[in-house]
Design a protein that fits this description.
Layout lengths: L5 E8 L2 E8 L1 H6 L1 E4 L8 E2 L2 H16 L3 E10 L14 E9 L7 H10 L6 E2 L4 H11 L6 E3 H4 L4 H10 L2 E3 L3 H13 L5 E3 L6 H6 L2 E5 L4 H6 L2 E3 L5 H15 L1
Parallel strand pairs: 3-6, 7-9, 8-9, 10-11, 11-12
Antiparallel strand pairs: 1-2, 2-5, 3-4, 5-6
Helix pairs in contact: 2-4, 3-10, 6-7
């Protein structure tokens, strides 16, 4: 299910069957009732104090630009051979996995060049707002409005159409919500391009007027795209726009 914000897998550990859940930290924490603490023999109850401490760490990592996954687990019956959504309860929270994925140094200049040519830049991401704001600051992208997936899901098509005009930062959005955003832009009379390289990006690449992927993308994304960039550099897009307009003018 591409719209879920977490993944569950079954593992064998010391003869026991363990369900491991990883995904959006707020989701994983919400499904956990206990947590592991370094040096403790048994998991402890995830009370309000422990929950606040975990949230504070999550927010601090986001402020520093880290992308964060929450990880939790629980024991399941030995005969269970598949992971089910109904199993994602009463978990033991294990901790966070944090990693940096900084933008290329050339990305900021390329995005500004596109804007100078009348192309509005909108960021559609599954990341949380803190991480995305940090990346926007690194790229020099001014934020004109923010819309989170939870709020977007409550909007009808007319309301979404109004919000996409003023908003350039869409956080914690699912693949289906990305598709809704692109459709709203098209209904508003805009020509929408979408750049993506993952399996989840395939619907949006297909819906966009111009679907753009990269040579290293998964095959599904490349099949759905209209254009494949052989060089992972946003400057290629700006040069392509310039040459395309020159050719059209001639």
């Amino acid at each position: 299910d591409f719209d879920r914000r977490r993944v569950s897998v079954l593992l064998e550990r010391d003869g026991e069957r363990i369900l491991v859940v990883k995904g959006a930290p707020e989701d994983v924490l919400g499904m956990s009732s206990r947590y592991e603490e370094l040096g403790a023999v048994e998991p402890r109850r995830l009370d309000d104090g422990a929950h606040a401490k975990a949230n504070a760490l999550f927010e601090a990592l986001g402020e520093e630009g880290f992308r964060v996954l929450g990880v939790a687990w629980r024991r399941v019956p030995a005969g269970q051979d598949h992971a089910a959504v109904s199993d994602e309860t009463d978990l033991v929270f294990a901790g966070f996995v944090a990693f940096l994925d900084p933008p290329k140094e050339s990305a900021g200049a390329a995005l500004r060049a596109l804007e100078r040519r009348g192309i509005a830049i909108k960021i559609l991401t599954g990341d949380n707002e803190r991480v995305t704001r940090h990346i926007c600051a690194e790229l020099g992208i001014p934020i004109t409005g923010v819309l989170a997936g939870a709020e977007l899901s409550a909007l009808n098509e007319d309301a979404l159409g109004a919000r996409v005009e003023e908003t350039n930062l869409f956080c914690r959005v699912t693949p289906a919500q990305k598709n809704r955003i692109i459709l709203a832009l098209k209904r508003g009379g805009h020509v929408a391009g979408f750049l993506g390289d993952g399996i989840n990006d395939a619907p949006s690449l297909h819906t966009a007027d111009v679907g753009i992927s990269v040579e290293g993308a998964v095959d599904v994304a490349k099949d759905a795209a209209d254009i494949i960039l052989l060089d992972r550099d946003l400057g290629v897009l700006e040069r392509g726009v310039r040459e395309g307009r020159r050719t059209f003018g001639n």
